[in-house]
Specification:
The protein is an alpha+beta fold and 152 residues long. The chain has a single domain, classed as 2-Layer Sandwich (Alpha-Beta Plaits). It is built from 6 helices and 5 strands; from the N terminus they run ααββαββαβαα. This is YhcN/YlaJ family sporulation lipoprotein.
Length: 152
């Protein structure tokens, strides 16, 4: 009887601790989606070449799971999520990403962040971009840049 209990507990532990995380797999496979719309004479802020290239560059890193890039008037704001095991190296990864993007896009003002609130604000901006005027987009982007510079 004790052997049956022991086998049951071992089986449960092995199935519960198999090392896979279904949530992270789902988000990593999906990746962020870009809205490819054109409103009047205004091109989508996430569908232009700079935002797409920056996103592709950063997604090549093994540590990065999700990227949102927004580009408007020579300003590029990029936010990314990293794998759980790489959280201790987040500052190094952020510096490396920023350095590579500055090399790739020398004429752009680049802001790079790994912060969740920046990801959230960029995704909101991305969703509401069709409703906003270029001035409002610029204001929101400057607000997001200020948020990324805050130290908590």
């Amino acid at each position: 009887m004790k052997i049956m209990w022991l086998l049951t507990i071992v089986c449960l532990m092995l199935t519960g601790c198999n090392g896979t995380n279904n949530e992270s797999k789902d988000t990593a496979n999906k990746g962020p989606t870009n809205v490819s719309t054109k409103t009047g004479d205004q091109i989508s802020i996430t569908d232009n070449a700079v935002a797409k290239n920056a996103k592709e560059k950063v997604l090549k890193y093994d540590e990065v799971t999700e990227v949102i890039a927004v580009h408007h008037d020579l300003e590029l704001i990029l936010a990314f999520n990293i794998k759980k095991m790489q959280e201790f190296n987040v500052k190094k990864i952020e510096k490396r990403v920023k350095k590579e993007l500055e090399k790739e896009f020398p004429n752009e003002l680049i802001t790079v962040s790994h912060d969740k609130k920046i990801m959230m604000e960029l995704s909101k901006l991305k969703k509401e971009q069709e409703k906003l005027s270029p001035m409002e987009i610029k204001k929101r982007m400057s607000k997001i840049k200020k948020l990324s510079q805050e130290k908590t």
